[in-house]
Specification:
The protein has about 375 residues and is of the alpha/beta class. The chain contains eleven helices and 13 strands. The strands form three sheets. A six-stranded parallel β-sheet has the order 2-1-3-4-5-6, covered by helices on one side. Bound molecules: 2-acetamido-2-deoxy-beta-D-glucopyranose (NAG) (2 copies).
Length: about 375
């Protein structure tokens, strides 16, 4: 009997204990949820806008207006109109100027690398305002870039084609919001076309490859000795070809220029020579281009292009990406060579205001 009673009272204690635990646990959960709720409402009230945090550090410097971006040197003396960012690229966030007397007011100062004197004597000499950032502008791969001792610890942001630059300059594809239909292609007059830039050396990798390829397939050449080509009809010229040789002057990672963008924008298949295919595929769909490295030699590439010329279904597969993405015309006039870079910096200036220093510019760029 005694044993039974003990058992009974034991199980009652156990039951009460479980009940108590349950109540404490439930209260605990409710309290935790309540605290979390209070915290979250406080946070959303107090959260500072990250893009303006810099101005809290510099309370004297208020930016109610558009940020002022000073172009210290016009790159290669190529000037454009102040409304060109808006007109050509729909970028309107900053106020651009080349008036050096506004130096102390400028949020950003764009410095074109190639124009810097070796002794830095043509850079701003006045002390730099605490809020100001200097932007290093260089669109040339290291092989074409002069080393300037003293350029370390000078700049805050890099403006370059490389993926690891602070501000990347590139003609990008955009997503189509609405899926495009079957792409219509412009009328084609030529199979393969090539434009020889005036600065391209005859012995460059690209031009040598062109000469080799021309032994095996007809190539329509624009520019160079032919006068039938002008920048204004660049897009007409490129769109009249089934394939356009998009050979970069220098082979360097991420160095993929508007030579790729042009054909993509007008419905022509680019035949690329530059960094490896995988690097192109960082930026554009792999089935939008033909890469010379996919072929053992120019002869087999020529044979492949001839086969595609004869097989319309296979050729059209190179345009399937156009359902999902769009490429856009880039400005082709000479004075717009740096438009994209400068306008991209302008846009960046509005969106990202964080503090930064590039300590080892050379180590970063030439490594
Ligand atoms: C091309 O020729 C120039 C001189 O004519 C020479 O300095 C350069 O090294 C050559 N480049 C190549 C890739 O052979
Ligand atoms: C910009 O870089 C300079 C030089 O390293 C540095 O002194 C300055 O504090 C930096 N400014 C900003 C806003 O990042």
């Amino acid at each position: 009997m005694a044993v039974k009673v003990t058992n009974l009272s034991n199980s009652t204690v156990t039951r009460c204990f479980h009940l108590l635990c349950g109540v404490i646990f439930t209260l605990g959960v409710l309290l935790t949820l309540y605290i979390a709720f209070i915290k979250s409402t406080q946070n959303s009230n107090c959260m500072p806008l990250p893009s303006y945090s810099r101005h809290q550090q510099n309370p004297g410097h208020k930016v109610a207006r558009k940020p002022l971006v000073l172009i210290w040197f016009w790159p290669e003396d190529l000037k454009f109109d102040w409304d060109d960012c808006k007109k050509h690229l729909n970028i309107d966030g900053c106020r651009l100027t080349d008036d050096r007397s506004l130096y102390l007011k400028a949020e950003e100062v764009i410095v074109f690398h190639d124009a810097i004197k070796g002794d830095l004597s043509n850079l701003p000499q006045l002390p730099r305002p605490g809020f100001q950032r200097w932007i290093w502008l260089n669109l040339q791969p290291p092989a074409n870039t002069r080393r300037i001792e003293g350029a370390d610890n000078l700049f805050n942001l890099s403006l370059n084609f490389r993926k690891d630059a602070d501000i990347q300059v590139r003609w990008e594809l955009t997503y189509n919001k609405i899926l495009g239909g079957a792409p219509s292609l412009p009328k084609k007059e030529h199979v393969v076309c090539y434009i020889k830039g005036d600065k391209v050396a005859d012995n460059s990798t690209g031009h040598s490859y062109y000469k080799e390829l021309a032994k095996h397939i007809d190539i329509k050449v624009f520019g160079g000795s032919s006068t039938a080509w002008l920048p204004n009809n660049y897009f007409d010229a490129v769109s009249s070809c089934k394939f356009q040789l998009a050979f970069e002057d220098l082979i360097y990672r991420d160095y993929i220029t508007e030579k790729l963008n042009g054909p993509l924008a007008v419905g022509t298949v680019p035949v690329v020579l530059g960094p490896p295919r995988i690097n192109y595929e960082d930026f554009v769909p792999g089935d939008s281009l033909v890469h010379v490295n996919d072929f053992p030699n120019a002869k087999s590439l020529a044979a492949f292009l001839k086969r595609l010329d004869a097989d319309d279904t296979a050729y059209r597969r190179y345009f399937q990406w156009r359902q999902y993405f769009s490429a856009h015309h880039h400005p082709v006039t000479d004075n717009h060579k740096y438009l994209k870079a400068i306008c991209t910096a302008c846009d960046f200036s509005v969106r990202k205001r964080d503090y930064r220093v590039i300590r080892y510019l050379h180590k970063w760029y030439f490594r």
